[in-house]
Design goal:
The chain has about 160 residues and is an alpha/beta fold. It is built from three helices and seven strands. The protein has helices spanning about 10-40, 45-70, 125-130, and strands spanning about 5-10, 75, 90-95, 100-110, 120, 140-145, 145-155.
């Protein structure tokens, strides 16, 4: 079963900006590439045209997928984020039960926004799923490649 796309307000804004860029700047660039390739004559043996046409088809697919995601997504605004239990949009800090100096802080987001290097993890990844609906002080178990890890929820914020 396909999950309903979930985005934070920030994630929706970023997607809308991406779509705007694709529909204007990128579409104009690719159209120019196609025009230049057509100007080179015979399209049956024109590798430059084939490349430009493929870039155009890929761009249109990306535009369509992004527009569909925007249309289907459920946006989680700041007022929708609880500080009582963990959900999409929550800023969570956890500590390793076995090593309380090992603390991690991240925001739970939908898969589209996930970017672990920037502290954003998907609510559908193993740690995200384990944390969903947990409360302050709860201990959650996360199945990792190295075995089961236990974490304590030490803060939940917006």
């Amino acid at each position: 079963m396909e999950h309903e796309p979930v985005l934070t307000s920030e994630g929706m804004q970023a997607l809308e900006e991406k779509l705007q860029h694709l529909e204007t700047t990128r579409r104009r660039e690719v159209s120019e590439q196609m025009k230049n390739a057509i100007d080179h004559g015979d399209l049956s043996e024109n590798a430059e045209y084939d490349e430009a046409r493929n870039a155009y088809l890929k761009l249109e697919k990306q535009i369509n997928e992004t527009a569909t995601l925007i249309a289907r997504a459920r946006v989680i605004g700041e007022n929708d984020i609880s500080t009582e239990s963990v959900g999409v949009g929550s800023l969570v800090q956890i500590e390793d039960v076995e090593n309380d100096s090992n603390k991690k802080k991240f925001r739970l987001v939908g898969p589209t926004e996930s970017n672990p290097e920037n502290g954003k993890i998907s609510h559908l990844c193993p740690i995200g799923m384990s944390l969903m609906n947990s409360k302050l002080g709860d201990i959650v178990s996360v199945n990792t490649p190295g075995g089961i890890k236990k974490y304590k929820v030490i803060t939940i914020a917006k």
